[in-house]
Write a structure and sequence with these properties.
This protein has helices at 2-28, 37-66, 71-98, 106-137, 145-154, 157-169, 171-186, 207-219, 240-254, 274-280, 290-296, 322-338, 352-386, 390-415, 420-423, 434-446, 448-465, 468-496, 503-535, 544-550; strands at 194-195, 227-232, 259-263, 309-315, 346-350, 431-432. The longest helix has 35 residues, at 352-386. The chain contains 20 helices and six strands. The strands form two sheets. A four-stranded antiparallel β-sheet has the order 3-4-2-5. The protein has a two-stranded parallel ribbon with strand order 1-6. Helices cover 67% and strands 5% of the residues. The chain folds into three domains: 1-136, no CATH class; 156-215 and 367-544, Multidrug efflux transporter AcrB transmembrane fold (Up-down Bundle), CATH 1.20.1640.10; 226-350, Alpha-Beta Plaits (2-Layer Sandwich). It has 567 residues and is mostly helical.
Length: 567
């Protein structure tokens, strides 16, 4: 079977990455909580980068074989050159994913750990298993010959060489066109609204979603996730002063127009006055009849010595609404502090709305630090790799542009609802607040794959020839077809997740697919050659202090074969 052998050369690493990641997630789940989203995200990332890295290595191996090297020597050269690009690409992706570990969110942290394991497994497979497979397969990777010849014609190196030269003849024009397209796509992102999806993260046809809608219509959306207030007073819950304080808090909540109903041990019968509650509990909870104690146990921790009370505030709106979120904020900042008699008591606000609010504030409170960390780490890594200050700055800016273009697309689809019927969901009028952060951390590193792979070949040629224009054309000639193929595979993998029922996964899949498509076309095929032609030798400029720190040589020029740069 020739096709399975060929498949094993580029698909084996991806499958191995997914299997190792899921096995690692299984082990990790016995130590820390692991989100179910790990399966989706890790599979998406593992399959994408696994195939990318395998294609990068396979492309280099075939090139070395065409240069006349035997399989063993070609595999060594592959690891020496493509291996470095894979290693540095893997590090950039891991840097982006590691930033998800900063917020105190078990969902984001488990997704980050799953993604990191997937990238590590894919990179290690490409640097160890794949070279061994290539030596074993040798020229079998060219089978079947008809398919190889067809793919060769579809990805002609001469086309990419000519394309690069054509773009570099009018660099300013193509820079303007490329930037205009990215900016136009990014403009809707300026009006992005974020919010919590709750059960709306499921598609309209999911059974649990339909059940939620029926309950919300019949009994009110607020019934599904009431706001919970926990009171641990500095005195007994049966103390008249404590009862008065809890009753006053319930009264203040019940008077709020956002609240439908309030229930607590000191506020359960509309016909009772404060004095009625104080008289009922005057003898303590132990003196109550058994049936009363059983009912009271739902809101008072009788087993713990009656030291904790729970109250429920049912809202008119659903738990994920702005009204519910604002009520939680007002409860903490204004309503609870204004109630006399709670001084010194511990009063906590919980429930699904409070949980969403706390995680969101934690995440976005650290988001600027996360962005700065990813940008700085990526810049330093590229600076060390390419011995330049201009290349990293340009790469970071272009990645940000493609990322914001993806944000704009998400706003059009998930906030404004364009194409929602086609994708099988109803727009909530906003983008889930998790999506922008998660996309940034995943995409910023993932899109660097193609940047590192392309610039590595350009840098390799430039170090040997000193011809900037010719080196750019040669780099695109040798990587254009493989970058396009790898991007297409990753777009298909990511886009397939848009067919699922979970809106967050759907949004991340669509955002990744668009950003990668833009990165492989507008950025790599237009903006990179155009900007590198316009900047010329300035691309490789580095101050004297940087040369002293990282040296004058290049990691990528080590043991490089002579190249011929065509005009």
């Amino acid at each position: 079977m020739r096709l399975p052998r060929r498949f094993s050369a580029w698909g084996g690493g991806a499958l191995l990455a997914i299997l190792l990641t899921l096995a690692g997630a299984f082990v990790l789940g016995h130590v820390v909580p692991v989100s179910v989203f790990v399966q989706n995200i890790a599979s998406m990332i593992g399959l994408g980068v696994g195939i990318d890295y395998s294609l990068f290595a396979l492309n280099r191996f075939r090139y070395e074989r065409r240069m006349g090297k035997d399989p063993e020597a070609a595999a060594v050269a592959t690891v020496a050159h493509a291996g470095k690009a894979v290693a540095f690409s893997g590090v950039t992706v891991i840097i982006g994913l590691s930033s998800l570990l900063v917020p105190a969110s078990s969902i984001l942290r488990s997704v980050a750990m799953g993604g990191i394991m997937a990238v590590l497994a894919a990179a290690l497979a490409s640097l160890t298993l794949l070279p061994a497979l290539l030596v074993y397969l040798g020229d079998w990777i060219e089978e079947p010959q008809r398919l190889t010849r067809l793919l060769g014609r579809l990805g002609r190196a001469g086309f990419w060489h000519g394309w690069a030269l054509g773009v570099m003849r009018r660099p300013a024009l193509f820079i303007v066109l490329g930037l205009a397209a990215l900016v136009a796509l990014a403009i809707p992102a300026t009006g992005m609204k974020t919010g919590a999806l709750g059960v709306k993260m499921l598609g309209d046809e999911a059974q649990s979603r339909r059940g939620y809608d029926i309950v919300a219509e019949a009994f009110g959306a607020g019934r599904i996730g009431p706001v919970q207030v926990v009171v641990e007073p500095n005195a007994s819950l049966a103390d008249p002063a404590t009862i008065a304080a809890v009753h006053d808090l319930c009264t203040a909540l019940d008077a709020d127009p956002r609240v439908d109903e309030v229930r607590s041990y000191a506020y359960f019968d509309p016909n009772w006055t404060l004095a009625d509650y104080q008289n009922a509990f005057a003898g303590g909870f132990d003196a109550l009849p058994e049936e009363s104690r059983e009912a009271l146990a739902r809101v008072v921790n009788l087993a713990g010595g009656a030291d904790t009370a729970l109250m429920f505030a049912t809202l008119y709106s659903e738990p994920e609404s702005e009204e519910a979120d604002s009520l939680v904020a007002d409860l903490r900042s204004e309503i609870i502090p204004s109630v006399a008699g709670l001084e010194g008591s511990r009063v906590l606000v919980g429930g699904p709305t409070a949980l969403e609010r706390d995680v969101r504030l934690e995440l976005y409170g650290k988001y600027p630090f996360v962005v700065a960390l990813v940008l700085a780490a990526t810049f330093v890594l590229l600076m060390v790799l390419f011995r330049s200050l201009v290349i990293p700055a340009k790469a970071v800016l272009m990645n940000l542009l493609s990322l914001f273009a993806a944000y704009g697309f998400l706003v059009l689809v998930f906030q404004h609802g364009y194409g929602a019927d086609l994708l099988g969901f109803s727009s909530a009028g906003f983008v889930n607040w998790v999506t922008p952060v998660m996309l940034f951390c995943i995409l910023f590193g993932l899109s660097m794959d193609y940047e590192v792979f392309l610039l590595s070949r350009i840098k390799e040629a430039y170090d040997q020839t000193g011809d900037n224009t010719g080196s750019v054309a040669l780099g695109l000639e040798r990587t254009g077809a493989i970058i396009t193929s790898a991007a297409l595979i990753l777009v298909l993998v990511s886009g397939s997740f848009a067919l699922g029922d979970i809106i967050i996964i759907k949004a991340i899949g669509l955002g990744m697919a668009l950003a990668i498509a833009l990165d492989a076309t507008l950025v790599r095929a237009l903006l990179v050659p155009a900007t590198m032609r316009l900047l010329g030798d300035l691309n490789w400029w580095a101050p004297a202090w940087l040369r002293r720190v990282v040296g004058n040589g290049s990691f990528l020029a080590e043991r490089a074969e002579p190249v011929e740069v065509r005009g």
